[in-house]
């Protein structure tokens, strides 16, 4: 039978008795099997997290496999607190701000890897709005990435992350960007571009439901249960985002996977596959004509770099005149 249960585990035990009528022996076996995962989640909530330790010990070369290290991530923030005179069209002056919004939690994973990494403020850190520890673990995760991916990356997640970094003395990082929101807006006309809506329309995993703003308020007050719920919600976003990334892969053009290895075969610029087929069409511009290739794995179209036009043909081409 499990020893030294926490209050949270004991409550879970009693809930099982009341709701499901399990025998005590069956319940103790369930808790024994899940004891370590329960304790890990509890440690994350109270701040005894080993996220930083895990990230410190990652061998980046083991993640590459001839591809760039692609990190999918998502952040959550605490709401700002301030004084105001109304709910509509208010101009908030600096002296009205009591606490600005700040980083609350993050979750991320490396593409093609099983583990999800995450971190969240402890109850004391949430009350004090002390984001230094969580900012450091997020910086550590992003420092290992060649490419970073998020939904609304450019206008939200990346700016939140960079603000936390500069406020805590962390240096800038270099990576390529993929914003799935920008891709959705550019190429499609869905009725809504929120990730929850896109994933539902595309038959993918969706975000985990929550109680809305009340959850964020409880987190701001340092409620341990709310912080744990928030962390699970944040991690759920990562799995949904990963599904969306794979669907949108053929439309990405922000990096070239072949630049991250020494393979001399033609490779898909997005997923790195060498399983390509030559298209029956050519890519044409005012300057030339190139072969096109389609990746058999992700469906992405790419063009070769050899101009098929002769010097004489190129000389004979005419350019339009601006009127």
Can you give a write-up of this model?
The chain is α+β, with helices and mostly antiparallel strands. It has 3 domains: 1-46, no CATH class; 51-79 and 98-251, Nucleotidyltransferase, domain 5, CATH 3.30.420; 266-316, no CATH class. The protein is 42% helix and 17% strand. It has 12 helices and 10 strands. The chain has helices spanning 7-20, 24-46, 51-56, 60-64, 123-128, 132-143, 153-167, 180-187, 195-201, 213-220, 224-248, 311-316, and strands at 70-78, 81-82, 97-99, 102-110, 117-120, 147-150, 176-179, 276-285, 288-295, 301-303. The chain has a 5-stranded mixed β-sheet with strand order 5-4-1-6-7, sandwiched between helices. A 3-stranded antiparallel β-sheet has the order 8-9-10, with no helix packed on it. A hairpin with a 2-residue loop joins strand 8 and strand 9 (288-295). It is elongated, with a radius of gyration of 25 Å.
Entry summary:
With 323 residues, the protein is an alpha+beta fold.
Descriptive keywords:
323 residues; alpha+beta; Nucleotidyltransferase, domain 5; 5-stranded mixed sheet; 12 helices; 42% helix; 17% strand
